[in-house]
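Task 17 of the worksheet. Students: predict the tertiary structure of the chain below and write it out as structure tokens. Keep your answer in the requested format; marks are given for formatting as well as content.
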Amino acid sequence: MSHTAHIPSHRKPRRSASKLALRAGVAGGVLGTIAVAGAAGPANAEPVTETIEMPTLGSLETGAGLASAVAASAEASQQEALDQSLLTQENAALQKAAKEAKKAKAEADRKAAAERAEAARLKAEQERQEAEERASRDRARTQLATTSASSSSDDDSSSSSSDGGSSSESGDSETQAPSGSAAAIVAFARAQIGDAYVSGGTGPNSWDCSGLVQAAYREAGIDLPRISYSQSSMGTSVSLSDLQPGDILYWGSRSNSYHVAIYVGGGNFVGAQNTSTGVVERSLDWDSPSGAVRIL
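Model answer:
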């Protein structure tokens, strides 16, 4: 039986061709040494056979496959890191957008609350001004009533001594229909009855007191100032007992009136009174004016 020595070969991936060549050279040297030793041995000795397992093409392919797997794993890791980075950026962008949306909503709510507060303040201020105007009219009406009461006895005695068939100029003017410029003013004022009262309104569907008077006189070709106290300072002062259609009625003092209206005859006036009534026609007894001026 021949003695054959087997040198086991550990199948490890070779990293380079130079290393493979080196290993092959060493193996060749070992085989040569063994052959020489065999030749020098006894003639009857059995030859010794050495088996060297050389690297095969399969082992080389296995090494290449492992390198490819390592490269693929590295690429996958890199792609995973990139995906994670993109996900982190997306989450950060979403959080930023959510914060900005929350901030914008808070700002919109704040502005809406401020607008509501301002609207409430303006409404309260308007109601306060209207209350002051009503109180001032009541005081002026009370004062006028006191003055009228003190002179009523003189008026009664004067009327009893006059001819019973005669009538006052006021009575004649109230029964006569207005004509000319006065008719245009009265017609325009009455055409606006039912329109809304709006502070600063100059028409065509909403007015304040002086805006209505100014527009009515414009129909007659007469330009008046915009403000009530300036309008009541125009023309000539006339008595409330000697009114004619088209006269301007005022409340307060002539140089500092706070409300104006247009006398339309028959003891009535048309004016943009307040937000509750709008433009109305009322009797002088409903809200007695402080005085009147005549411009026509």
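Marker's comment: Helices lie at 17-40, 57-161, 169-175, 180-191, 209-219, 228-232. Residues 33-41, 147-175 have pLDDT under 50 and may be disordered.
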